[in-house]
């Protein structure tokens, strides 16, 4: 599987800092804002965003993790059952500005499921979507992010691989991987 580097560790750090600066512009004191990272992969980005925001502002933005397994529209259509992840939302989101975070936006189905799952914790005042990678031209649903690290043109035979040192990678990096077998 050929791999092409999209963002190395240095550029990824710059991108996360830029995304945090945009959040600071729009959320100011973060008094009414919370972060929800989508399980499983958005959690790592949510932790990086929370940490960088604390470094830049001195504020600890409440952060939780949301599992959408049972809210997915393909939950019962899979041959092998999906395994649920932990949902940890230690705050009420009623009337809060929710910053929903995921690593890669592809079809939009995970985000749709997250919107449904969020309602169990209250009705937010506003929901904004932050993603590291927006896979352009692949959306099945009319969902667009408010904050984007990078737009990437992809085809269906490719996938975006986000590697974190917290998950055992040697360095944080984002790759575009061709999943087609080119050996014939």
Automatic annotation (TrEMBL):
CDD domains hit by this protein: PRTases_typeI
Pfam families referenced in this protein's UniProt entry, alphabetically: Pribosyltran
Domain called Phosphoribosyltransferase: residue spans: 7-153
UniProt enzyme class: transferase
SUPFAM superfamilies given in the database record: PRTase-like (SSF53271)
Signal peptide feature range: none
Keywords in alphabetical order: Glycosyltransferase, Transferase
The organism's place on the tree of life at top rank: Bacteria
One Gene Ontology MF term: uracil phosphoribosyltransferase activity
EC number: 2.4.2.9
PANTHER family noted in UniProt: BIFUNCTIONAL PROTEIN PYRR
Protein name per Swiss-Prot or TrEMBL: Bifunctional pyr operon transcriptional regulator/uracil phosphoribosyltransferase PyrR
Organism from which the protein derives: Xanthocytophaga agilis
GN (gene name): pyrR
